[in-house]
Structure prediction request, 351 residues.
Amino acid sequence: MPQIHYLPDDRTIEIDDDDIILEASLRADIPHTHICGGSARCSTCRVLIVEGLEFCSPRTSPEEELAKKLRLDPEIRLACQTQVAGGKVILRRLAIDSEDLESFTDEMAGKLICAPVGQEKKIAILFADIRGFTAFAESLLPYDVIYILNRYFQKMGYVINRNGGMINNYMGDGFMALFGLENSDKAAEQAVRAGVEMLEELEKLNPYFETLYRHRLRIGIGIHCGWVVVGNLGASNSQTVTAIGDAVNFASRIEAANKQVGTSLLISEETYQEVKELAIVDRRVSVPIPGKSGEYPLYEVVGMPPLPVEIEEISEVNEKSIWQTFVNNLRALYAVVYNWIRKIWSHIKKL
Prediction:
């Protein structure tokens, strides 16, 4: 006989084949919320199927429509539309108190960004921090501090967005950016390319800061690729997409390691394996990472070959762009030759 085990109630009930979850809950006096009366016109009866999804019926048309609107994961089901047959299902009721109900109601009304409760994804995480900014800021007026940071964040934001990433968290004079939220195929390449371009953009920006404040900004960038949980976080009216997990902490530690080894852009071994055919690497270092045992290999990236020029852009080529194309192609050739020589040297050292 099929069974349903409820969390957080920690109760198990026996049901008949093809019983609807909501109806079984109510018969067993389990306080299962269902504001619309079980007609798939709200999502307050939603449950998370922890185990036994294969024993649940496919989504009905009304449930499919609502799931698409709210971008629900396959494991999130409407209890009023889901039948159980042939085995045991372990589920968690998701509307437990009045705050849960308010959040679900806001989603249905379009007041919240509809996103999964949490998704595990492999993405690239980039951390950046301005070196010595606190001491520099102490000599400035508050207005100037905000002005400099906004000017810097604006330029860096353009670079991040241009390379398919998004800045999701600002921390004083630092920030965290995520790549591969939609498609992680080229997340590592996008993040490393963004890191290189950030350093180039800062070089263009520094003469301006030197003129006004007699100071050049220096930044440290750390990049790591790994599995994280991605979801909306924050109060209901100000939620933002963020990532949580050990990979995030590791990326932050890599950024901090730049101070230790005197570099500007370091990437992890996992990231290097994704971009080793493209990235121009100056050196490999092994450093201890706070909170972890042993030393970890990190790679200093000093360049990336440019992206291919689109055919449509050829008609717009002028003298300046011809020169820039020549320089870009030269840099791309250098990257190929450099990596080829590095591979040959690596083989020679093993002999």
In short: Residues 111-116, 310-318 have pLDDT under 50 and may be disordered. The chain has nine helices and 15 strands.
